[in-house]
C-alpha cells in the first residue's frame, strides 16, 4: 500500500503508474478514495507522461510493503500535480451515482457523461466542506482550460502521517482559542480538530518536506477559517489572530 496522502502533503505531487490508459500533459485527473471514505477527494493536473523509474522521485519511504514498491517500478509513469484537495459529502459515491456515475471506479476511467462532469465541476469545492479546511494550491482556474479530458482514478486512503504526528505532538486543543472539542461536546468531539499549514504548500519549495512540529498546527474550524481570511491582502498568523481575539 502507498501512502498517497503524505506524499501529496510533503511534495504537492506524486508519480503515478499510467497503466494502459492514455494520458496527455494537461489532463485533469480526479482521485477517488475507496473505503472508508468512498469519495472524490483530489484534483490533479498531469504535468509529465511516459516516465520510466529512473525519471521519477524516489518515494520508497511512502510504501508500506517494500516488495510492492519494487514491483511498482515497472512500466510507465506520469506526474500528477495536486491542484485541490477537499472533503465534501457531495463527492461521495452515493451522490456521484445519483448524478451519472455507473459504479465505483475500479481503475482509470474517462468521464464521458456530461451530467456527471457538470456535477463534479459544480460541487468539487470546499464551499460545501464537511470535515476539514483544505490546504490547497491556489492556482488560477483559467490556467487549465486547455485540459483535453478528465479522468478518475482510485486509491486506498490512509490517514496522513504528518497530521497524526502533529496531533500527537501538539495535542487536540486549538492553538488560537484553546477549544477542545471533546471537553465541550463529549464523545462526539473526540479526536476532532483541523490541522493548519502555517506555510501554504504552494509557497514552499518543491522538495521541501513538512516538519509536523513547526509547519502544522491544530486549530478549530472557526479559527482556521479566520486564518485564511485576508486583512489588507495578508492572512493573519497564529499570534496575530490571538491578539485580534484579545481586543
TrEMBL record:
GO terms for molecular function: endonuclease activity; nucleic acid binding; zinc ion binding. It comes from the Bacteria. It holds the Pfam family HNH. InterPro entries: HNH, HNH_nuc. Gene3D superfamilies: 1.10.30.50. Residues 174-229 form the HNH domain. This is 5-methylcytosine-specific restriction enzyme A.
